[in-house]
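Quick question: what would this complex look like in 3D?
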Amino acid sequence: MIKLNSNVPEGNITEKWSNYKFSMKLVNPANKRKFDIIVVGTGLAGASAAATLGELGYKVKAFTYHDSPRRAHSIAAQGGINAAKNYQNDADSVYRLFYDTVKGGDFRAREANVYRLAEVSNNIIDQCVAQGVPFAREYGGTLANRSFGGAQVSRTFYARGETGQQLLLGAYGSLNRQIHLGNVEIFSRREMLDLVVVDGKAKGIIVRNLLTGETERHSAQAVVLATGGYMNVYYLSTNAMNSNATASWRAHKRGAAFANPAYTQIHPTCLPVHGEAQSKLVLMSESLRNDGRIWVSKKAGDTRPPDQIPESERDYYLERKYPAFGNLVPRDVASRNAKYVCDEGRGVNGGRAVYLDFAEAFNRIGKDAVKDRYGNLFDMYQNITGVDPYEVPMQIYPAPHYAMGGLWVDYNLMSNVPGLFVLGEANFSDHGANRLGASALMQGLADGYFVIPYTIGNYLATEKPEKANPESSEFKEAEKSVRDDVKKLLSINGKQTVDAIHKKLGLVLIDKVGMSRTEKGLNEAIKQIRDLREEFWKDVKVVGKGEELNQTLERAGRVADYLQFGELLAKDALNRNESCGGHFREEYQTPEGEALRRDDEYAYVAAWEYKGPGESELSKENLEFTNIKLATRSYK
Amino acid sequence: MSDNHITLKLKIWRQENKNAKGHFDEFNQKVSPDSSILEMLDEVNNKLEAEGKIPIAFESDCREGICGTCGLAVNGHPHGPLPKTATCQLHMRNFKDGETLYIEPFRAAAFQVIKDLIVDRSGFDKIQQAGGYTSFNTGSAPDANAIPISKTNADLSLDAAECIGCGACVAACKNSSAMLFVSAKVSQFALLPQGQPERYDRVQAMVKVMDENFFGSCTNTYACEAECPKGISVSNIARMNRDYFKAKLCEEKVEG
């Protein structure tokens, strides 16, 4: 059992962070340059952390497997970033953002972390504007806001549909400045393949140079992981092709607890799978649900084109089941119901897609008004599908999108391995069982710009500046294990490609550990994943050599980790005998078919310790809700 | 969605490393019109891997046209023949059954081939490191609404800031000039009050590093704008030239 101490400071929730900042130990400015910090990943969390730690005077080594830090998948975020500025004078506040986030997370997040997130949200917007991020503005020159994801206030800042790009490029600029000043050294095309732990503390990493295949040892006094989420475990997801869980998983194998892996967000408005060759799924902003109506045929296996299915034979199932919220129900509810109607064979042509129809909006406000609001999304849809959505209703289907779970961290964002910090989507802390729209960008930047620069100092202040010796046995052992893994993968020489096995894993997971889960299905999934893992190590074919650029080998290592992680994901879902947020167990629902949370038994963070392949031990961090009363979400 | 596959003849550039001599390999590939060109390459690679052969090295990441990782020249056009479309967004329904496709890496002196279709674009990062930012330390920013910015300028700034750093402009240019790329970043800041304090230093620093990294001169052919997947305008180049000349003409550092 791991001892999990959240280290949440004492005091009133509104004062915790201020008081804690004052009580922290500081590193003397002249001593900061004696401390080396490794930051892995250069997305919003990693780039903002590396830049800010460089500004403070630490010596930072930043790592990315991309050719440039700017490619990280934060860049693809469309919608926006939340902040409690209350610029719209619509009664928003830090407390309201805190409240909405805890409630939206279905009461499975840690209150103190969420409050701090809401508190620093305003600083993020100030910082980004100072960096020259061209946010949308009103004619008077002030910043524009919109309401997003069903929020009752307009607190979302945005830059067209490219908010993630603009925020990442802002952080990338700050990072570049520190590289230019010599405070940050950037290591591109390096993939972290192991964490080095010396005397129980994180002291370095082993990376593989993706161009040459050489392994490298890097030593530091602290390691910061900002390596994103694990949703590519499903094979098809909205994540980028290279997004992977390997850095997190290898840290987990070295002792870091993995928390709440079963909390997965499956986004309702994505393009359906077009065929066997599909490599990833594309998300369209859920703002489409503001004017689009979702429906399927009342009849199973209906192959008539949509214009030949009369109104009386259509089922607008969200409007029917949730008359108050209709098509605007939260992401998890919308996704689950799409799955149900398709399971009944009522999807488009009996397949896995539902209609998102704007005919009513065309009549109500006209095609031009619809074009004004959603023109770029309609263009995107037509470009990808070749179908004109002004003439034929769109087809959509949910897709794996965001991981709320991740490595366990305390209030300092430090894992249970001292010296290992985890930021952004890679940690578990702020979104509970369900993330609200426009909150991912907020959390990544909060962690990187405004939390880690303080908390890492508090840790380093008690550390000696001597670095661990990269020639020590711990480094050598870790490097050897990385090299042995590579050799093993290359020596199997079986018959199946890496992608073929990854696809099989994805199908098991999306079917049994996706939007809707059962005890029976999860037990089957665990067995199937174990079999697949065996199949992989007996029959995978990895061509090429280890000492060269070898993309197949890169993918093979990631899929090997997914084959272990996937089992933990299923186990966590099996352990959690309740439904909450993105985790829905069919056995636990209200008579109306809604998620049934079981707060008496499951108001805890499930943190798993690695005990060998397929073996994990559960530790629990109990969650206390002292500020916000536990309540049931209702969207009827 | 449709299942009427087409068959294409692919001539794909293979080059083992930067020093090796390259050549075209030929493949006949049946493909769904709904697949993207990268998904077609995935299929070619899966077949190669299953046969124990070395797959074609190419890069991609987001496959949504925003990360700038992918970049292939298709029939001589960076990102292929469609305007304002990144390689990953190029779908096979835009090609005819039986057509021949030449797929090559981005060609430019500043972009050395690493392997097959992967090139080294690190020169772009070096230029950005020289000045592609405002020098604001975290925590020192005033309230975000303290300085109003006209909607027109904010929109123009965002038009420029949409650059995805893919390098198509360089590959399209007969001189391998990076002027569109550099001017996009220079313009983004030149249009905003936050960019003013370093405006003239920035343009000089970025142009200097651009020149040092084998990018050629601009001779106003506008091939860059025509091939840019984000439609970045050449008017940014004009704006950058104005700032650059102004900075150079005045001996002391000028303000505004």
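Answer marked as accepted. The first strand of chain B starts at residue 6 and ends at 14.
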